[in-house]
Design a protein that fits this description.
This protein is α/β, with parallel strands linked by helices and 247 residues long. It has one domain: Alpha/beta knot, CATH 3.40.1280. The protein is globular. The structure holds S-adenosylmethionine. The site of S-adenosylmethionine has 19 residues, from β8 and α7.
């Protein structure tokens, strides 16, 4: 069920809260029945916002994949500012992709600009509006995990760094930056990687600055132009989908 949320004055400001001004469906409340308000007398406005969303997110069905025989992709979003909706958009681009729906997304990790690392399960349904997304993020940071409806599975959870300890050994870690001198055609680049290698893509989710090169094996640019993280990710997903013939 979708709850219309009232807009009292400051309409322009509210509209800007949505990812790139998009009005898109609200998903969290499809988990109705588990909604819990957590307002306290001393709650801050941010905490109140967090209390408006549910503690559990529904999972979406994705095609189960034999993880023992097929390699997959892992995304790491670096330096994400949770106050800025851009990371939500980048996460949605990954979760909505056919790569994920085909079951080949192994993992998604987000490291915030404050150094908090969290894991997003590939089948989680992330809220599609900034307001609800930031509420979930606040809950995650307070409770350290968010569980699936009626299950024990943690769909989102804060984990200990470094992220490299969670990566498969047979993986190639590829960092992205417009400033890299190695400009590649992403489709050719991905096509040339051996099929027995997992692909780990490290993309910046910050507004300014670039990712650290410390743990990547290669550092590439995929366009002559600076791209948004979401666009960069969609180009990466397209290349992988072409390689693995995911249509
Ligand atoms: C909004 S940008 C971050 C801004 C930052 N000034 C930069 O270019 O790295 C988001 C991320 O998308 C990726 N990206 C953007 N343009 C790219 C390009 N032309 N080639 C490769 N990656 C790119 C990078 O990982 C970047 O950190």
């Amino acid at each position: 069920m979708v709850r219309p949320y009232g807009i009292k004055g400051h309409k322009r400001k509210r509209r800007e809260e949505n990812y790139e001004k998009e009005e898109i469906e609200q998903v969290v409340e499809e988990t109705a029945g588990t909604t819990e308000k957590s307002k306290t007398a001393a709650a801050t406005p941010d905490e109140e916002k967090a209390g408006e969303v549910v503690h559990e997110l529904a999972g979406i069905p994705i095609v189960p994949c034999d993880q023992s025989t097929k390699t997959g992709v892992i995304f790491i979003l670096e330096k994400a500012s949770l106050e800025v909706g851009k990371v939500g958009k980048a996460i949605l681009t990954i979760l909505d992709s056919p790569v994920n729906k085909s079951g080949r997304l192994r993992a998604l990790y987000v490291r915030t600009d404050k150094g908090v690392l969290f894991e997003v399960k590939p089948h989680v349904r992330i809220p599609r509006t900034y307001k609800r997304f930031s509420g979930i993020m606040l809950q995650l940071l307070q409770k350290l995990s968010i569980t699936a409806v009626g299950k024990r599975e943690k769909l989102l959870r804060v984990i200990k760094g470094p992220v490299t300890q969670y990566l498969p050994i047979n993986s190639q870690k590829i960092g992205f930056s417009h400033s890299s001198e190695k400009l590649v055609d992403m489709r050719d680049y991905v096509a040339a990687v051996n099929d027995d290698v997992n692909l780990v893509f490290v993309v910046g989710a910050m507004a300014h600055g670039k990712i650290d090169k410390e743990y990547v094996d290669d550092f590439i640019s995929i366009s002559d132009y600076p791209l948004s993280a979401a666009y960069c990710i969609s180009r990466v997903c397209n290349a992988v989908e072409q390689k693995w013939k995911i249509v």
